[in-house]
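Let us practice reading a record.
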Amino acid sequence: MAFFVGLPTSAEDFYAMGTEKLLDYLKDTARVNAVIIAARTFHGEAGYETHDKYFAGTKLRDTPSALKQSGFDILAEITDRAHERGMKVYSHFLSYDFAVPAADSETNITLDENGWEVLPNAKLLNLSQVLEIDCFGRKGMRPCLNNPDYRQYHLSVVEDQLRSYAIDGINFNIERYGPISNVLNGNGGSAHGRKPLAATCFCPHCLESAHKRGIDLNRAKLGFLALLEFSERSWQAALKDGNPMAAPGTPLCANRDTSAPPDGYFIEFMRILGRYPEIAAWNQMWHDNMLSLLAEVHGTAKAVSPGRKVGFHVWHPRDYSPMERAMYNMRDMRRFCDWIKPKMDHTCGGYRYYQNIKRIHQSLFYDRTLQQAASVMNAIFDWDVADYERLPENGLGLDYLEKDTKAYIADVFGEVPIYPGIGLDMPSGPAGSMHRPCEPEYVRDGLLTIAKAGAQGTVLSRGFGEMQRKNLAMAGKTIDEINSMLCVGEKYDS
């Protein structure tokens, strides 16, 4: 079987270059055999024809994109043409929850006084009716994954696309942190500072879910308030120190003590979890609700068309956040997906891991050195990236790719294919910062490394519009090399 090669594209890519020309280029140059098309944007614009009959169970509606209004239906435009070339078409559904900057750039992050990213002109109609509720009773900026209306919206989109177009399946993607991570680290993106956020969600639907699990609501709220007060302690200390990782914002708790706890921040964190186990229970409930949405998406797709595939994208912070890695359990996910694509960009990943260590250091180890925090994280993940300060310049490296690819494969017991996302020219960090440039040799080394580790394919990431032609050409040459070895029955043994 040929190596799976997916590549995310947008309607704008095809409109600008021309459908036939771009499909030929992807197939002939990069050896792409699966086009992953963003048929809807992450803030609710649809580039295809939606049908109200599939949305009877939800108030939420996407609005047509500018290209769709001009008559350019991206799914109708590319599906048959891709199939004629032997290429699959997967619709990429990114449930990014709309708390994003207006410009999709890591250099243009704008935060409000509470540390939330400034919301763009969200195109999803009736969004305000499904927003989360935080532990203070305030509406947040992200929809609640446990809200029945919001869940049905996802299922309606999936059913509409599968019934209305001859696509080969869905590439589904949720990118968001759980309650503990939000309270400890705040905005989780790769370029932001740290501002602790109030825990969510405490809407009626989540309260009902907690009641069924036997979680004490009052103790859960008290626990998250204690955790927030703890988290703001180090954040305010960092503000006082002029630490650039401390994002500005309004404190949510009354504690203004910025001295380190006598036993250290990490021990104090463990004390809070021991005193309020409801924190961990609520965090698990939040992630279980997210996981059940993935299961419903898969079930809906199979009910509509059993032969079509559902792949799940696992975002990169799962790899380098201990809290998120514990929650995103591949052994559970394997039961309701046809493939898993972990985002494993080893070039820009160095900068992102570098920034995440700064947030973890500030939240849990601010009474220790940054290098000590980095050593703890490296030990947890068993990564050979000892030179912390040069992470942005060096990237995460091939040792990371090999170990994590093998770990994903072991976690799913080899039952579903793993297609690591290999980054080509993904931007990282503020303009002028040192970060690993993507060169053809690094693309080749990355692809060969995941093949040796047992991956059955890859998704070249993040999107066609960012990629240099020389790197796409090298990807194609390396895929040819991998496929030739597969054809003669050889294996990429390390």
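A brief commentary: The two ends are 21 Å apart (CA to CA).
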